[in-house]
Amino acid sequence: MKSGFAIIIGRSNVGKSTLLNRLIGTKLSIVTNVPQTTRKNIHGILNTEEGQVVFIDTPGVLKGGHGGLSGQMIDQVKETLHGIDTIIYVVDPSRSIGSEERYTLSLIRGAEVTKILVINKIDLKDKPYIEDYRAIGAEEFTSVIELSAGEGTHIKSLVNAVMEAMPEGEPVYPMNQRTNLTKEEWVAEIIREKALNEARAEVPYAMHVVVDSIVEKEADPSRGKPHMFVVSARILVNADRYKKMLIGTGGRIIKEIGSVARKELEGILDSKVFLDLEVETDEKWLRLI
User: Fold this and answer.
1) Which DSSP string corresponds to 115-149?
2) pLDDT (tens digit, 9 = 90+) per residue, 87-140?
3) CA 32, CA 199: separation in Å to the nearest integer?
4) Contact, 91 vs 118, CB < 8 A?
5) What is the reported pTM?
6) How far apart are CA 281 and CA 8, in angstroms?
7) Is 256 helix (H, G, I), strand (E, B) or coil?
8) Burial 63-99 (b: 16+ CB within 10 A, else e)
């Protein structure tokens, strides 16, 4: 049996989290247009008859990200490069090769492992820089795979290439496990995604979500009560003005965040969900990450 780690690395907004979700077949990593949405190294575990691959989704490499939250996330990327078996470097052919790409390449250039260049978003009509990336792939990578994480095309080719590169070994995780996230962490990420998407530019992306409790209530047909998860959560921001923006006039924004988060959770969990969601100001929320 084969078993090992494959890191997914690249600049922000190239589709790394979408790719992880597609590889695993379920939503583990949140997806938004906000740079560095992914904050921690999320493990997505793929189990097949051949073995187990632990895909690691990392924060995007962002130009100028050397201090505060951005610096902390870049440090995570560097640390994760140690002890892995395959590097999956994801690029977007609609964006030119700039300082972020060159910096990312410098991080992985000396790694003596299988390196796969994934040219994502091949479904795009306009791909002006695809030949530039193909040239880099021919020079510095073991193989180049062109795919669309959003459409799901050529994903199997990537899975086969990664599995082939894995060493022989015992599974790192139980064969029925899909992620290293706890249920609370996973629900918090879903809520944070909806907050980022609904609030858009009104609130900085540097917010944090804490799930205080998840209580599962069994169905009671005699009383007409369905199976339900009761979730209590808080969105933390670092200033009162952001709290007001996130709540919105008459509570409009926070209600919409709660509504879309609840609907997605119900779809994934196949159960009714009651979501108690509040917004709090906590200037030191970064300590919770």
Assistant:
1) EEEEE--TT-S--TTHHHHHHHHHHH-SEEEE-BT
2) 999 999 999 998 888 888 888 888 889 999 999 999 999 999 999 999 999 999
3) 12
4) yes
5) 0.84
6) 33
7) helix
8) eebeeebbeebbebbeebbeebbbbbbbbbbebeeee
Residue with the larger pLDDT of the pair 114 and 61: 114
What are the extents of the domains in the chain?
2-165, 183-288
- Give the single-character DSSP code of 288: G
271: its two tokens: 């159960």
Q: Domain 2-165: what homologous superfamily?
A: P-loop containing nucleotide triphosphate hydrolases (3.40.50.300)
Which CATH number is correct for 183-288, 3.30.70.100, 3.30.300.20, 3.40.50.970, 3.40.50.261?
A: 3.30.300.20
Q: Which amino acid is at 105?
A: L
Residue 44, Cβ neighbours under 10 Å: how many? Answer: 26
- State residue 66's pLDDT score: 42
